[in-house]
Amino acid sequence: MADMADMAHPVDIQGSYDDLFTAVPTALAALLDGGDAGGSAAVFVDGEPVVDVWGGFADAERTVPWQRDTIVNVFSVTKTMTALCALVLADRGELDPDAPVARYWPEFAAAGKEGVLVRHLLSHTAGLPDWEGPVAEVYDWSAATARLAATAPQWEPGTAVGYHSLTQGFLVGEVVRRITGRSPGEFFADEIAGPLGADFRMGLPAEHDHRVAATIPPPSHDEDYAASAPGAAAPTAGTVLRVRDGNSVAWRRAQIPAASGFGNARSVALVQSVMACGGSVRGVRLLSRAGCERAWEEQFSGEDRVLGMPVSWGLGYGRFGGTYGWGGWGGSLVVIEPETRMTVAYVTNQMREPADDQRGMEIVMAAYDGLKGLQAGG
Known about the structure:
alpha+beta
């Protein structure tokens, strides 16, 4: 592995990388040169890092350097972590994706939701895409889940897809809680992040606050900025969430398993390498190969009513050809390719306008350049 200290860049990039993957740190440097505050990128192959780099600044004033252990709110990339919790339970036989949600959460059967299946929650087809309560209620697990249990679906569950930007985490998370007796953040910490040694949390304790790079709105916007786009934390209807909400202490402490995960590219890539490597990473097996592969089975394909674009969903993961993953409001992204056992993650504190934001894909394409070299050499 080369050290970034050996590379000359206008922007100081830190970390290490395999020589074949030089395009990734170069791409990150270009994003920072182009005006972004800070970010990190990681590429794991066979569960081991071939790229782990970071650079820029953790604050809008650009006075605090982005460090190795800087973490950021990755917004909807958190959904892939929550999905993994559900997949682990399914692999253990404790959760049946084809069971009615009400089997685990009886109150959920209200308002015509008797037929909503667990897989509908994971594939955004349950008909509950919008959060229509006060923002403060998302910090109160009991209140948030009770509101959703009482809500009628907007369409017949399973017949259409509409991105559940904020609600999906409460829906899947409550099923996890009913089965295990633990909050999704606790289950994730105990069963996934802990065994892997991954620096990713849903529900951030105060002792980690000093490591957080607060989200910076796009240029020409302030903290009242809200958006609706692929991976957005703000729904198209109902209550709007703003950058200032995501930067609040209440948001950090709460468990909002669709959107309030904190980590860096290294930890995101490490956790999701489990899915790239057939369920096992670094000697830690979290689920069987079959349990892993069921995540890729298409649950629904069609025009998304919320996002206004065609989507294909597996069990909690977006499907993009032979790759899987999802992005978050503000630009963070994870992409998993089981065929090559590669996982690519990019996280940033710098938002851009969603229509103009291709940063994550630029990092992914740079990783493919390295992968070609790796395969040619192998």
